[in-house]
């Protein structure tokens, strides 16, 4: 009686040829890419596969024959670290910049193929930022293919291809921010712009802020979430910051606090939202948001650039503030008349800004 085969399985097909198969390290049965004329040839193929597994050089040939598009879609769907916004960006880049790679099997994506694709993309009409994003996505997908034993190594070896050197952004002056604030047609959105400009907040952080995140007594705001809007669909949602450091309490400068007080005194938004000072969560349409962002061309505030000393992250409770009766003749000096914007840092020595 013949002994049990130590590794793999060989069976004779009705055609008279032999098929070899084995259970790989991934726990799935793998068939040989072709059939064999004799049983001895099938045994030799299984012996080579067993040696590759023992040396750690075995590759999943079935997975390696999958196209880049199939594997990339599975990567975006199954990876818990990929958010909806990044997945949307990757799919758009595949459609615009990675067409020549979509139908290529993983095992056929070699360093020369990657260099040829990158050189053609960088000479094309696409933006450098999108191409760098595409290269990073390609590298991440092929890193996953290496971990899945589909390929031996990652062919993405172009130095600096995944990084973009952006020019330094201009910082708006206090006068430019003041002009921008007065240009906004709706007063409801002025607090959001002032808060972003002087407290160094991103647009998503301002849009996700709610009334319970604003403490007018202490003069602080809490950043707990980030508002995300997809570009190619109406999906909107809030998510936590990428790192724990993203959740923080920020001290609000007195002249910015004035705008928050005025915003709170106007009452809730018509839609009933409880957001503190947002355009997106108060039911603003894209055209309304564009009107909020419209201002002097010289005041370039593309990503919450600050025009002076921004609100600092609070490490201890703020110093007590002097209280003056509203009914009395003395009004706190930092409270300004409605509609005015006088930055307390403009022309003021640093020692007197506290």
TrEMBL record:
Database matches in SUPFAM superfamilies: DNA breaking-rejoining enzymes
The record's annotation in PROSITE patterns points to: TYR_RECOMBINASE
Q: Which residues form the Tyr recombinase domain?
A: 167-354
Q: Which UniProt keywords apply?
A: DNA recombination, DNA-binding
Q: Which GO terms describe its biological process?
A: DNA integration; DNA recombination
- InterPro entries, alphabetically? DNA_brk_join_enz, Integrase-like_cat_sf, Integrase_catalytic, Integrase_recombinase_N, Phage_L5_Integrase_N
Q: Give the compositionally biased regions (Low complexity).
A: 267-285, 321-332
Pfam families registered for this protein in UniProt: Integrase_N_phage
Q: Which domain of life is it from?
A: Bacteria
Q: For the region Disordered, what residue ranges are annotated?
A: 265-354
The name on file for this protein is: Site-specific integrase
State which residue ranges cross the membrane.
none
Compositionally biased intervals (Polar residues): 299-308, 339-354
Organism, scientific name: Jiangella rhizosphaerae
Q: Does the keyword DNA-binding apply?
A: yes
Question: What are the recorded GO MF terms, alphabetically?
Answer: DNA binding
Record keyword DNA-binding present: yes
């Amino acid at each position: 009686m013949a002994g049990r085969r130590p590794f793999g399985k060989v069976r004779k097909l009705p055609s008279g040829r032999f098929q070899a198969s084995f259970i790989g390290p991934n726990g799935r049965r793998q068939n040989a890419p072709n059939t064999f004329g004799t049983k001895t040839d099938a045994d030799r193929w299984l012996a080579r596969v067993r040696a590759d597994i023992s040396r750690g050089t075995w590759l999943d040939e079935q997975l390696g024959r999958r196209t880049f598009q199939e594997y990339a879609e599975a990567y975006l769907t199954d990876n818990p670290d990929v958010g909806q916004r990044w997945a949307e960006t990757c799919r758009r880049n595949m459609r615009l910049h990675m067409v020549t790679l979509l139908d290529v099997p993983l095992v056929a994506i070699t360093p020369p193929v990657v260099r040829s694709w990158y050189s053609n993309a960088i000479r094309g009409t696409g933006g450098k930022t999108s191409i760098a994003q595409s290269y990073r996505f390609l590298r991440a997908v092929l890193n996953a293919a290496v971990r899945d034993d589909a390929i031996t190594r990652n062919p993405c070896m172009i130095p600096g291809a995944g990084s973009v050197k952006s020019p330094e952004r201009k910082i708006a002056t206090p006068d430019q921010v003041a002009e921008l604030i007065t240009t906004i047609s709706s007063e409801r959105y002025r607090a959001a712009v002032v808060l972003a400009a002087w407290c160094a907040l991103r647009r998503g952080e301002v849009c996700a802020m709610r009334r319970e995140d604003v403490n007018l007594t202490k003069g602080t705001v809490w950043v707990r979430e980030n508002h995300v809007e997809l570009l190619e669909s109406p999906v909107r949602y809030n998510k936590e910051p990428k790192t724990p450091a993203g959740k923080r309490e920020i001290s609000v400068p007195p002249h910015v606090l004035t705008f928050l007080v005025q915003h709170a005194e106007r009452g809730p938004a018509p839609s009933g939202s409880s957001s503190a000072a947002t355009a997106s969560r108060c039911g603003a349409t894209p055209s309304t948001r564009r009107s909020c962002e419209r201002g002097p061309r010289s005041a370039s505030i593309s990503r919450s650039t600050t025009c002076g000393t921004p609100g600092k992250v609070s490490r201890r409770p703020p110093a007590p503030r002097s209280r003056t009766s509203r009914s009395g003749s003395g009004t706190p000096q930092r409270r300004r008349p409605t509609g005015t914007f006088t930055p307390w840092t403009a022309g003021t020595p640093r020692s007197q800004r506290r």
